[in-house]
Design brief:
Blueprint (H helix, E strand, L loop, with lengths): L1 E3 L14 H23 L10 H4 L2 H8 L6 E5 L6 H9 L5 E5 L4 H10 L5 E7 L5 H16 L8 E5 L4 H9 L3 E3 L16 H6 L4 H14 L8 H14 L4 E6 L5 H15 L7 E4 L10 H6 L4 E8 L23 H18 L4 E6 L4 H22 L7 H13 L9 H4 L8
Parallel strand pairs: 2-3, 2-4, 4-5, 5-6, 7-8, 7-9, 9-10
Antiparallel strand pairs: 1-10
Bound molecules: 6-O-phosphono-alpha-D-glucopyranose.
The site of 6-O-phosphono-alpha-D-glucopyranose has 15 residues, from α15.
Catalytic activity: alpha-D-glucose 6-phosphate = beta-D-fructose 6-phosphate
GO biological process, one term: glucose 6-phosphate metabolic process
Enzyme class: isomerase
Length: about 425
């Protein structure tokens, strides 16, 4: 993974980041790197995620999925327990159909379950806590749907969860294959673990390649942002946020990475959005969103930086010659060539408007490249969390809402639920 921060420099962006600022910041990066290294070595909560390429047990994952014979996989989870697997499934060439139930919209859930051949579908139920209401509710609905068509769900269900909780109890009661969420790995940092790798193992994907890519990126971590692509990204985004660029539009130029932008959004928002700081992650897709969101990023409030991601190599499609003179310039070139030109043009157009962008390039979107990207963004996020001085691995604001909802559902006495009754309304009808 290569990072180009040239378009974030103050010679391009206003305000941008000066070379002197980066050099001063590099002293803090060195300290942060020491802290991160200590956390990795001690397998401390959160930091343990960066040890995953080394500690993940690909063999255990293959053994757990081995008895499952399926044409489709339904992932039941939410947040970090769903987005990593969805990212892998969309980016890599897996040979099963993959669906995700990560919401409790009744219409969507029933339509999806009705459309699947449940006798050929496996369930992967994922919850680190084993208590998340949406996940457990969706599982119960999916299980009943299987039972109602005479499918033995216990033969087609794999569980990934923590040491205790409802899901652990369920796996034990029905003797289901169960994988452990590795200790110290929060959901949004769990993509390179038992949480998300089973989709690759089931679909004939390259689990080892993903871990090898992550390992390659792990080897680059050093005490200087000038030598560490992940830290260059984390430190530059931090410096830009400090200068008012509080929106980070993640814009991959590859359809296969569209879900990666969703995964990134959770990572960035939930990890860094604390104590009045952070960056709002926006999800964009090149070139599609050049024709919608780009107007705002280039000419709206001066608060949005753009992260442009692209693979250097991809399969290509030639554009046929045309009889239309006005389109002659397209004939004989390729869709990939056009996409690359759009990428270069977007980057230049932002720079011409003094708006910052950062370029991330991968060799290609394969298991190795994806492993590099996912690990690199996790390391960047942890580094940014150190620079922002926020508790990267906590999410108290999310927990607040969960307690309020649980109280409303009669799941216990939670004072947060009272806030729902006390809401201020001004209804216009
Ligand atoms: O894996 P689970 O315990 O079910 O949690 C699923 C998700 O829900 C929570 O609300 C957290 O804020 C997320 O970080 C987490 O990924």
């Amino acid at each position: 993974m290569e990072i180009d921060i040239g378009n974030a420099l103050h010679s391009v962006a206003t305000p941008g980041v000066s070379r002197e600022t980066l050099e001063r910041l590099d002293e803090r990066v060195a300290d942060a790197h020491d802290r991160i290294g200590t956390g990795i070595d001690g397998r401390e909560h959160g930091y343990a995620a960066l040890a995953l390429p080394e500690t993940a047990d690909a063999e255990a994952i293959r053994t757990a999925v081995d008895p499952i014979d399926c044409e489709a996989l339904l992932i039941v989870g939410i947040g970090g327990s769903a987005l990593g697997a969805a990212t892998i499934a969309d980016a890599l060439d897996v040979d099963i159909d993959v669906y995700t139930l990560d919401n409790v919209d009744p219409e969507y859930t029933s339509q999806l379950l009705d459309s699947l051949d449940l006798s050929r579908t496996a369930l992967h139920v994922v919850s680190r806590s084993g208590t998340t209401a949406e996940t457990l509710a969706n599982f119960l609905v999916a299980r009943e749907a299987m039972e109602s068509v005479g499918v033995d769900w216990t033969e087609r269900t794999l569980v990934t969860t923590g040491g205790e909780g409802n899901l652990r109890a369920l796996a034990e009661r029905h003797d289901l294959p169960a994988l452990d969420v590795p200790a110290g790995v929060p959901g949004r940092f769990s993509v390179l673990s038992t949480v998300a790798l089973p989709v690759a193992a089931l679909g004939g994907g390259d689990v080892e390649g993903l871990l090898a890519g992550a390992g390659t990126e792990a080897e680059t971590l050093s005490g200087s942002l000038f030598e560490t692509p992940a830290y260059a990204y984390g430190a530059t985004t931090y410096a830009l946020a400090e200068r008012g660029w509080t929106v980070n539009a993640m814009m991959p130029y590859a359809e296969s990475l569209e879900t990666f932008a969703e995964w990134f959004a959770q990572l960035w928002a939930e990890s860094l959005g604390k104590d009045g700081v952070g960056q709002l992650p926006a999800r964009a897709l090149g070139a599609t969103d050049q024709h919608s969101q780009l107007q705002l990023y280039r000419a709206g409030p001066r608060n949005a930086m753009v992260t442009l991601v692209r693979p250097r190599e991809r399969a290509d499609v030639t554009i046929p010659e045309t009889e239309l003179e006005g389109l002659a310039y397209l004939g004989g070139s390729s869709l990939g060539g056009l996409l690359d030109a759009e990428f270069e043009a977007t980057e230049a157009s932002l720079a011409a408007a003094a708006r910052p962008s950062i370029r991330i390039e991968l060799e290609r979107v394969d298991a190795h490249g994806l492993g590099e990207l996912l690990y690199g963004m996790e390391a960047a996020c942890i580094l940014a969390g150190e620079l922002f001085s926020v508790p990267t691995f906590e999410q108290p604001a999310v927990e607040w809402g969960k307690r309020a909802a649980r109280g409303l559902l009669g799941g216990g006495e939670f004072e947060e639920a009272r806030a729902v009754e006390e809401k201020t309304r001004l209804v216009i009808d």
